[in-house]
Amino acid sequence: MNNSVTNTARLLWAGLRALLVLTVVTGILYPLAITGVAQGLFPGKANGSEIKADGKVVGSSLIGQAYNLPLKKGQETPEPELKWFQGRPQNGLGTNSVNTQYKLILSGATNRSGDNADLIKWVEDAKAAVTKDNSTTDYKVKPSDVPADAVTSSGSGLDPDISPAYAGIQVHRIAEKNGLSVAQVHKLVHEHTDGRILGFMGEPTVNVLELNIALKELVARN
What we know:
The protein is mainly alpha-helical. 45% of the residues lie in helices and 7% in strands. It has 6 helices and 5 strands. The strands form 2 sheets. Strands 3-5-4 form a 3-stranded antiparallel beta sheet. It has a two-stranded antiparallel ribbon with strand order 1-2. A hairpin with a 2-residue loop joins strand 1 and strand 2.
C-alpha cells in the first residue's frame, strides 16, 4: 500500500514538473523567441501589415475595406462612393460570401454552387450595376468587359485586391468624378499593380486601399 502511494506521488510529481517545463518552454520562451525574430526581421508583417496615411494607420494591406456613402434612411445596404476605386463585392450583390462589410468575424463563403439561382441572380445584378456605374459620357462598359472579381467576392470575403482588369474599367469613372485625366488614373493603376509572385505564381493584383490612398494624394496635388 505504501509503495503504491509512493509510486503514485512520484509519477504525479514527475508529471507536474514536465507540465511546468513544457509550459515555460512552449508557452513563454518559444513565443517570445518567435516574436523577437519576427519583429527583428519582418516588423511590418508581424504588426499586421499596417498601411499609414497622413501619419495614421488607416488599414491593413491584407484586409479589404468598403468605400460607401453613409446609409440613408430606410436603406439596408449603403451605395458605393464612386469617387473611389471599389473592391470586390461585399454588399449582397454578386457575392459568394456571407460577409457584408468586410467584417472579420463574418469571414467565409456561402458555398453556393455555380448553378444556384440566388448566386446567378446576384452575379447578374452585380454585372448590371458595374456596367452602369463605370460607364461615363465618353466610355461605355459592356457586360463582356466585366471581370469575375467585379461580381464575386473571394472565399473569405476579405480580399483587399482586385484584378488590373477590374481596376481598368473603373479608370474613366474615377477620372470623371475626381477631375483627373484618364492618362493620370491609368498611370496610377499601373504603378500600383503587383505582378505574379516570383514571376510565375498567381495573377497580377491591385491593392485597393493603397490605390485609393495614392488617388487621394493625386487629387490633392491637382
